[in-house]
Design a protein that fits this description.
Layout: E1 3-5, E2 12-14, E3 16-19, H1 37-50, E4 54-56, H2 65-74, E5 82-87, H3 102-116, E6 121-126, H4 135-147, E7 151-157, H5 161-174, E8 179-185, H6 197-204, E9 207-211, H7 246-262, H8 267-276, E10 281-286, H9 291-298, H10 307-317, H11 325-332, H12 338-344
Parallel strand pairs: 3-4, 3-10, 4-5, 5-6, 6-7, 7-8, 8-9, 9-10
Antiparallel strand pairs: 1-2
Helix pairs in contact: 1-2, 1-9, 2-3, 3-4, 7-8, 7-10
The structure holds NADP nicotinamide-adenine-dinucleotide phosphate (NAP).
């Protein structure tokens, strides 16, 4: 599998990452899946065989069970992989069991290390923006974790562009560890990050890890216009993020189907293949409830659609430029760099 540098860091990660939100099945995560250790081992085996080296989890996934199961499934292979987890979500009833205070970040990290059964986390990500904690406090705590050897790289997830730019500026000004990547929601039915977050990443040299590339299963091929929805899926329980314009989504799925047939591939693979080629994207986090789904998704990196096919999908999934982007495009067209023009600028 293709290896890509994670932003401007020297770390190389596989073009596909394995996401383990389906491990555990506890609490509100029951609808995502309930993969237990034995099955998780097979998932890890399949990923390693396919060349995946990056594994993503979070403390909140099944209230810690996803981390525990991933740690057990990796076992002695832990040092062969790049392990990414996240902190921010509520992990207890106390007033400080949530967010990005120094208190919570450091304890959350120590708890994740214990559950993952490791003494270092390769990529430690803040899971969202904490409007109540000064960024200096969060970045200072993350910096200490790196210096103590518990964490090797830091990243963020679900930040607005101004949050991220402010954090990068603070890191530079105060000589603190800098985010190397952001983890973002991106798919053919959700391209909002192309307005700001992708150009920011290209400009600042941040890696992009994509979550929910199949829009929580909507783009997996089992949802088709005019056909009854399959039952027992995450989507049928409306466990999907954001809101999707379904009619537009079905138009996109029809094009994906035509492209998939041309390549003897599946609709899910075609949807993942498009995300893999977007400007700025480092790695696409695939999720799977079953081994069959995982095998299908891992094949997405083994073929490439043509330029013309990419263009057809770009066109049909395009979103109207909002202000100030239409103004910038109209008045600066001749000065917009090609990489940005290729998809990051709208
Ligand atoms: N940073 C964040 O805030 C954040 C948020 C969400 C996720 N993530 C990360 O991103 C990873 C992936 O997210 P995601 O699970 O939402 O990704 P996704 O690819 O959008 O959805 C995965 C789900 O789609 C269905 N599916 C996947 N492949 C399929 C196939 N080949 N055929 C049929 N159905 C298929 C399965 O659900 P059903 O069987 O139920 O249909 C599967 O659990 C997570 O594991 C996690 O690591 C991060």
């Amino acid at each position: 599998m293709e290896m890509r540098f994670l932003g401007h860091s020297g770390l190389r990660v596989s073009a596909l990452t394995f996401g383990t939100m389906t491990f555990g099945g506890e609490g509100q995560f029951r609808q995502m899946g309930s993969v237990q250790v034995e099955e998780a081992r097979r998932h890890v085996d399949l990923c390693l065989e396919a060349g995946v080296n990056l594994f993503d989890t979070a403390d909140v996934y099944s209230h810690g069970a996803s981390e525990e199961i991933l740690g057990q499934a990796l076992g002695r292979r832990r040092d062969e992989v790049i392990l990414a987890t996240k902190a921010h979500g509520r992990m207890g009833d106390g007033p400080n069991d949530v967010g990005q205070s120094r208190h919570h970040i450091i304890r959350a990290c120590e708890d994740s290390l214990r559950r993952l059964d490791t003494d270092y986390i390769d990529l430690y990500q803040v899971h969202g923006f904490d409007a109540m904690t000064p960024l200096e406090e969060t970045l200072g705590a993350l910096d200490d974790l790196v210096r103590s050897g518990k964490v090797r790289y830091i990243g963020c997830s679900n930040y607005s562009a101004w949050h991220l730019m402010k954090a990068l500026g603070l890191s530079e000004r105060k000589g603190l560890e800098r985010f190397v990547s952001q983890q973002v929601y991106y798919s053919l039915v959700a391209r909002e990050l192309e307005y700001e977050l992708v150009p920011l990443s290209l400009d600042q040299g941040l890696g992009i890890l994509v979550w929910s590339p199949l829009a929580a299963g909507f783009l997996s091929g089992k949802f088709r216009r005019g056909r009854p929805e399959p039952e027992g899926t995450r989507r049928s329980q409306r466990g999907d993020p954001g809101t999707i314009d379904e009619e537009r989504g079905y138009d996109i799925i029809e094009v994906l189907d035509e492209i998939a047939q041309e390549h003897e591939a599946t609709i899910a693979q075609a949807a993942l293949n498009w995300v893999l080629r977007r400007p700025g994207v480092t790695s696409v986090i695939v999720g799977a409830r079953t081994e069959e789904q995982l095998r299908d998704n891992l094949e997405a990196a083994s073929w490439e659609m043509t330029e013309e096919e990419v263009w057809r999908l770009d066109e049909i999934s395009d979103t109207p430029p909002i202000y100030p982007y239409w103004h910038q495009r109209r008045f600066n067209a001749e000065r917009i760099p090609q990489t940005i023009e290729a998809g990051a600028h709208r």
